[in-house]
């Protein structure tokens, strides 16, 4: 089976070209000025075609919390949002902290219509399983309290985890970012540390103004880029997440971090909870995000806050490079055909009733955004096109390490 995407605008080294893209056997076979024959043809109508986004931080809640989300609804929402690969976090029920739980999640994730990677959870006593876990995206270490109760605070245990795992994603807030880095320095550990959802100027400083800066990568979420703590006054529980929203100055510092390349990745931390749960006195922290990340970023592109090259670097290329995902993240011949068509001029409001996430709300509800994904192709298959989902299963990503 082959597919030709005609009339594409593509970015090659920061320049824009008009090209046609031929997909064969799930891969990008040709990026060309010619019009090769294909079994089917779609017209991108001179819209930009970008690599699909790789969202290295989602909570699709399966197993155990499927009243909030599951791999089907979560992946449909991701596809609609222009995301073609996700990494699922381990704070499910049971948590993904044993080999049996990892196997179980692998089976459940098979229904995903976007590619998936699985993140293994660290506890104080699962080093042997961390060592044996096969084909995991990374190990996640929680140094601060959050949904799921996976916190590890023993420094020796943390050191062992960093030693064991080639790449650890750490949920660390405030000075804990520095604490994590100190463990690496003191023990001369050469593995990688990826700091999830950096939310303040100070955390970004800890992560990046450090002699290990090349070993340490920083992620920010759209929530922390497009909201600040004033939004909590308006939205209450619906703007509460871990880490909490910070000041306008912090928000600015994250944008500066994008400009000066201190921020390596933008990822959603898609953490859906039901409206009813958010309305309880003891509401859980976390907000959904896979359907709004790219529209927010394209809207920011339209107001000159970010370039398309930066969006592609932060959401496609860097996640692929940092986690060494095989064959993804680039619109290049030979790479997997994970591609999206985006309409930079499409203006539309975020509306709860349009969302495919099970939780059916967004903190950005009502916001009018300019720039939306219109078609999503995963492994050469169209899984989303102008409001319609096609249920074609994707698969687990592989890593080159
Ligand atoms: C996450 C969740 O709900 O699973 N919540 C959040 O506020 N980000 C947990 C987490 O990633 O910390
Ligand atoms: Zn998270």
* Cα-atom radius of gyration: 20 Å
**How many DSSP-defined strands?**
17
Helix content: 25-40%
Report the uncertain regions.
Answer: none
Q: What coarse outline follows from CA principal-axis ratios?
A: globular
CATH fold description of the largest domain: TIM Barrel
Structural class of the helix and strand makeup?
alpha/beta
Q: Explain this structure to me?
A:
The protein has 401 residues and is of the alpha/beta class. The protein folds into two domains: 2-49 and 335-344 and 370-389, Urease, subunit C, domain 1; 51-322, Metal-dependent hydrolases (TIM Barrel, Alpha-Beta Barrel). Helix content is 27%, strand content 26%. It has twelve helices and 17 strands. The protein has helices at residues 71-80, 99-109, 127-132, 155-164, 175-186, 201-208, 222-226, 230-235, 248-259, 275-278, 293-302, 308-322, and strands spanning 2-12, 15-24, 27-32, 40-43, 48-51, 53-58, 83-88, 115-121, 138-142, 167-171, 192-195, 216-220, 265-266, 339-349, 368-378, 381-385, 388-389. An eight-stranded parallel sheet has the order 6-7-8-9-10-11-12-13. Strand 15 (368-378) and strand 16 form a beta hairpin. Helix 5 (175-186) packs parallel to helix 6. The mean pLDDT is 97.
